[in-house]
Amino acid sequence: MAKPAEGSYAYFVYHVAALAERTHAEIVSVSVEMSSANPQEAHFRRLIGGVRKIFSGQLHCDVASGKDVVSAAKTSFGSVQKAN
Along the 84 residues of the chain, how does pLDDT read in single tens digits? Predict the structure, then answer.
């Protein structure tokens, strides 16, 4: 897994996932609240896959207007919970 650019969303998410793993957190949330996220399905698949390599707990994924991304995450990456 290539290290993402410092200051990027992926860098932040991977940092949070590493902290969560180290502190035995139960869940990590990968959420984006922008309608432009849906066309970036491949990006979110890679992001969630990277988090799965770092964090062994539950993963919450919520992408506003990105129902396809959440569905893909459920089938491809194990324990993913969608926010209500």
Answer: 678 888 888 899 999 999 999 999 999 988 766 555 556 777 888 888 999 999 999 988 776 544 444 444 443 444 444 444
Place of tokens 């902290």: 19
Q: Output the six-digit token pair for 19.
A: 């902290």
The DSSP secondary-structure symbol of 23 reads T
b/e code 51-78 from CB counts within 10 Å (16+ = b) = bbebbeeebbbbbeebeebbebbeeeee
Which of these, 20, 21, 48, lies nearest to 32 by C-alpha position? 48
Which tokens belong to 75? 């089938």
Q: Are 70 and 36 in contact (CB under 8 A)?
A: no
